[in-house]
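Supplementary Text 2. Reproducibility record for the structural model of the 242-residue chain.

All settings were left at their defaults, and a single model was retained for analysis rather than an ensemble. We include the record here because the model underlies the residue-level annotations in Supplementary Table 4.
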Amino acid sequence: MEKIAIVFLLFLIYSFIGWCMEVILCSFLEKKLVNRGFLIGPICPIYGAGAVIITIALSGYKDDWIVVFCMAMILSGALEYFTSFAMEKIFHARWWDYSQNKFNINGRICLETMVPFGILGLAIIYLLNPFFYNLLGLIPQNVLNIISIIMAIILITDVTISFNVISKVTKTVKTVTSENKKDNTKEITEKVKEILKKTWQGNRLIEAFPRFETIKEKVKKVAKKVKREKKGSKGDGSQKNI
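Retained model, structure tokens:
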């Protein structure tokens, strides 16, 4: 239980650090405060998951920093690619896109971000992990377990709410396709944004992830498809009347 609690808390710590990095970088690029993150809380789980994977997989290679650096790049890249692919399939939207960057793979990962992840891997293994392990070691085991359970409940609640908000958008797009009624692109797009803006989390996602706007692109395609099908059905009807 002790090891599980420590690993879980490390996941949360690195998720928070990742969130801070994302907020600072994106706020600098956008020249305004951007609250990044898929979840309501101030964490980016992909960073926490990456840090835990690096910790488990590479702690035994401390004697060779080159191996740690290279493997950290590969593991982080694989995690980022899989996460991008999975989230696009689930939510029908791209959350980040590196298509404009050199040496990218399907726009999901690129060398420009993998190198910093390699450096972060070195920092995790040689600097941050020793510090956090010592810090968590000062906390009594019972207290550590209680904190872990409370944080796990909060995280599960957060994930449930966030997934529910995004799934509403997916359902709306599917409903519009199945209903096959009015071919008004603007109206359909507004329906999507209306659902997002009904909640604080939905509105924040629009600002936090510019690539989330690709949902609008999908809706436009749906509207065009509806329009073509509608014209086609009218054509078939006129021929039958003749």
